[in-house]
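In this notebook, the sequence line spells out the residues, with the fold written below as integer tokens. This is how one looks.
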Amino acid sequence: MPYDTQNIFAKILRGEIPSHKVYEDDKTLAFMDIMPMAEGHVLVIPKCEAVELSDMPADYIAAVFSTGAKSHGSAAQGI
């Protein structure tokens, strides 16, 4: 399946849809979920076109997990 450049996450990355950013670097964006399953629910997305995890370069996969660890503390503090 090809990457859809009009998906909601691509629009968030381009700034077409607002988000409450928790953390951002050159490879990832972490932001608060608008329909959280729990308090502090954060979504982490890569800044590369990927439909599945296997489509992502290894450095982006590592960055997603690293960002998840970094953003956990911020979300728990309610930032």
Q: What stands out?
A: The helical segments are 8-13, 58-76.
